[in-house]
Specification:
It contains 2 helices and 12 strands. It has one domain: YmcC-like fold (Beta Barrel), CATH 2.40.360. The longest helix is centred in the N-terminal third of the chain and has 11 residues. Strand 1 and strand 2 form a beta hairpin. Helices cover about 5% and strands about 55% of the residues.
Length: about 240
Amino acid sequence: MKKCLLILAAFAVVLAGCNKPADTPLNTNATKDNAPAKPVASTEPKAADIAEVPATLKTDGYLYYGLDCKKTLTYKLVRQPNQGDQSGTQKVVYKGMVDGNPSFEIERAGDLMALGNDKLIVKADGVYSTFAAGTDINPPMLALPAKVEVGATWPSKMTSKGADDKVIKIDMTNKIERKEKIKVAGGEFDCFVATTTGELTNDKKMTVTGTSWYASGFGVVKMVLKITDAKGSSQTDTIELTSQG
């Protein structure tokens, strides 16, 4: 069940940050007579420039997924029952245009490294997940629609193989239920609240329920995700923003 929660959390949680500019190489090409040194061509690959993302693709989904945030965010992960608090950071790295679609990678550190990195693309109708928890998602799965409004619904469906070569199936429905102001350790935010219900199959079929709070410019600032197996045993993850930096 732990692996299943990691998979779902990786799909559900996207936090924001920015690329650190590459360090400028030291110029050691000075001449012996102390003449001005000739510039040394950098061998570092040029970082993709997020400014190239078309304005038409900076939709509600783009903003509420936190893809424009310029901060590295720290989150607390609480897993129940019988497990202590964990903490880690995430940031979004813009990777450039792929087939006309902006692409991003979510990089995690600390205890959140257990979720693995995610890969995303942005299309006209929303933000799509292409890789999560070490699993390719093909075709890409809609993570958040372009238009975020109360009453909006969208499916989360995929069939893939995990690292252990077992078939993983996700069949869930998401709905924006309401707008709500929420206060967490990392700040106070005006959010759209989305619920998730459905099933996850990984050898055995399990019921999934969840609630996520999306804030514009930050992404998910809180999420509660619960998986229940056929015997009624359940496990719950709560992920909450604790600081901005």
